[in-house]
Each structure stands twice: as structure tokens, then as C-alpha cells.
Amino acid sequence: MSAGFLLRKLARAGLTIWLCVTFVFIVLRLSGDPATTILPIEIVTPEIEAEFRQKWGLDAPLHSQYAAYFLNVFKGDLGYSFVDGRDAVEVVFERLPKTAELMAISAIFTLLLGIPAGIYAALHRNSTIDRLVMLASVIGFSVPSFFLAVLLILVFSVTLGVLPSSGSETWRHAVLPVFVLATAWSGIFARFVRSAMLDVLNQDYVRAALARGVPWMVAVRRHALPNAAIPTATMLGLFMGGLITGAIIVETVFAWPGIGRLLIDAVGNRDLAVVQVIILLAASSMVLANLLVDLTYGWLDPRVGANDGTRG
Fold this sequence. Notes:
MetI-like fold, disordered C terminus, mainly alpha
């Protein structure tokens, strides 16, 4: 893997984060005035609104606010919450462990279910099990997350009363949110891994290995699985982004106290600094995940990073 390949990926990652944060910064300020949302209607006066805008720098022109924001970012100051006056980073990181817990458990179940299911379906192509796996995967990623979440609450919380519908106090509270997050991505991984495995199994080097007398499962383990892992690695970046966006929906429906639910509350309250920190964190996580995937791809297939990298 060449240095040019690495530098190009790092530059693209930095540009992507900057564009995301800039877009959110501009849209938030053009979409409404925080003073009219946060201040109580019954006591607000033009003087109080003007004082609020002056305190938070909202009375300055947009380009001045933008310049001041990025200058403060480079100083390590990401702003303060309009709602309670605390450091926005502190407010977000207070909720981060719950989201990380939910995403980590969901990722484990997704990979443990989706990848083996895809491999098994590929090795038993056109069998009844293959068709059942593909049917389940299509249903899994076709059903909207919010619909599945509400349906599970109605069945397991309201009707049967066996699982809680909100909160995060015990492991039982995580069952339904994890199931919703893992369902769609397990189906996606199963279909993608099956396709990658079938493509590899049809390659000449696998047929040549079998012609030399290499046992079927040995050929699968030595040749098919490593080569199928290369295209599968590209899914991991999308998987990270899907978990982050999925967490916003799931945390809202199940009242899970993570940054997804915090984002919805902050947008509703026009708490700009908190929203910007969450977007910066989410964008950085997704870009970092995609960067690691690109580097892993280059490591698995050295041709990708040759000549400064030609893969988009």
C-alpha cells in the first residue's frame, strides 16, 4: 500500500467531515431562530430575544458565525447547550455509552447471523434452506425499522407483556432495540455474502484446486472464504452508517437514552451546539469506518493500493 494511497484517503476523509459539518451548520441557522423556540412564550420580549441572540452570537452575520465556529473548533471549543448551558461535548458524551452499547450488541448479532447465513446459503445454492434464507433476508431489510419496532412493542410489550417497551435499565430492555437494528443488516449481509461466495466459487482457481484433488471444504476454506472477504469488507463502512442512522429511529421509538434520541430532542429545541457535536461525531465515525475499510481492502488486495490507489 503506497503512501499516496493513504494520503488520498485521509484527505478525502477530512474533506467529507468538513462538508458534513458545514452543511449542517448552514441548514440549522437558516431553518429557524433558536430564540423563538427555547425562550418561554409567556415571558419573552423583544429585548430578551435580542439579549439571547447576542449572548450566543446569533445576531452576527452567517459568515461571521461560521468563521467563529470553526475558529473555536480548532481551539477545542465546540460550544455550549442553549438549553442548560453545559458544554455540548459533555451533554453528548453523557449519552454516548448507551448508544455504543446498543450498536456494539447489534453489530455482534448482525455479523454472527448474516455472514454464516450467507455462506451456508451459497454452499447450498438453490436448496430449500437457501431459498428460506433469501426470503428471510428480503423480509428483514424490506420492513421499515419504525414499523417493526412498533409491531414488536404491540406484540411483546402490550399483548404478551414479556419485554419492556422503553428504558435501558436491564438486558431485557435491549432485546427489542437490538432485534430491530440487527434484523435489516443481517438480511443485507446474508445476501451480499452469498453473492460474493457464489462469484468466488465460480472462479477458475477454485475449479483448478478441486481438479487437483483438493477436498471441497478445504478449497472453500483456503480459497473461497478469503477472497469473498474482500468485497464483503466494503459493506462494513455502510454497516456503520446504517447502525448510526438506525439508532436514531430505534432510540426514539424505544425511549433509549442515547445520542440518537438526544439528536431528535436537540433538533426540536434548536439546541444548535448539541446537534453540531452529534453530527460531527457521527460523520467522523462513519468516515473513520470507511477509511479503515479502504485500508483493510488495500491490505487484503495489494492491487488496490498500487500506483497511489485507483479504487474510488
